[in-house]
Predict the 3D structure of the following.
Amino acid sequence: MLIRFVVNNFLSFREETEFSMIAGNYKTHAEHVYSNNGKLNILKSAAIYGANGAGKSNLVKAIHFLQEVVFSGEIKEPIDNKKFKLDISNAEKPISFEIEFSIGKKIYSYGVSLIDFSISEEWLYESGVTKKDKLIFERTQTKEGKSSIKMASKYQKTPKDRLLIKLMEENLLKNNELFLGKNDTLKILEIKHVWDWIVDSLIIIYPGSKFDGLVPSISSKRFNNFTNELLKTLDTGVNGLGIDIIDFDMFFAKYDDSIKKDVLQKLNNEKTLLFRSDIGTVFVVKKDEKISVLKVISLHNSPLNKDIIFDISDESDGTQRLLDLIPAFDRIIQYDQTFIVDEIDRSLHPALLKSLVRKIMEDNTTKGQLVFTTHESNLLDMDIFRQDEIWFVEKDRKTCGTQLYSLSEYKPRYDLDIRKGYLNGRFGAIPFLANLEDLNWHTQNA
């Protein structure tokens, strides 16, 4: 579960900026707060507002960039173009990230500093919260450009353990590689759990990305019931979803033989495979030597009360976006995962989006987290969110760097119309609009 994320000198973030999911001392929506074994209270959600170009999406990109580096285990290309460019002094400074999260009852803090094409610092601690943090590892760079690694004593009990760390320092760990990425070699369970959480439990959905959770989930009766009930509640015109089973050769007849061959080769190792086709993601399944393609379809009710089958690609952009989000929302309810959705309002009607978010926020069985960026002011509702779940992003007019702050810093009354206050500029984070009359549109030639 995400607790904090800190970014420095990345894209529009000129200086160290912190985003926090730690709950404040508010009594409203107590069901939105998870207690980590009494150590820390963590929020269920966060809604992030701001003008275009203020840096909302850059926060998402920062988290995603860290996730990709962890997944690959290395910096694959120079990162100077990712630094804050509007202050020349930042060109000599490192890019740094720190992410704090919980796995079960334990809390971990992982951080990394990147400069040029190398890792200048990297660290992992078990956070003590009310007591001293416990070191797992700390990696720095010497003047000679080599890595110096400090490990917790419990991981250096044997000569073999100490030799491995020595070899890492001397030649096994390259300057552009993460020590965290060596979890298969190190065989330290805590390091593996941290790598797994960052890669697998943190799911990022961009406006144009397709979340593939719909296809494998649709065969679940529980998920099907959840989806169909939700679609009917939101009045989308879709009565439910189903599966169309297509012969493998028939489906792939329009594709090059090389693509078909590649799919068959991958199926030798796996029984199922996701394939992104021109009609959306499909599921390729091998069972008893027979290979089939499973395609999700939508069902509409005709005037004669009969189900009419539609391809998902025939649905409106709004319905397709909704179908991308439904598996994510289901997993937020079912699992301890953190979903970050950039521009959640893209292609969705404000009333539909509000109903969808409200339904998730009011569900007392929710186990995960939802963090999203949006322009949709209808969600600025204290009946849906707590003060500390609402965040604003704004560009500093002097430095042009992104600033991030919570509504809780303003200490608004619970009965205050937050939406009206936001649109009137009370909390900042809205576009600076010059006097439109000064543009003299009426004098311009056609």
Notes: Residues 431-442 have pLDDT under 50 and may be disordered. The domain at 1-210+324-435 is CATH 3.40.50.300 (Rossmann fold).
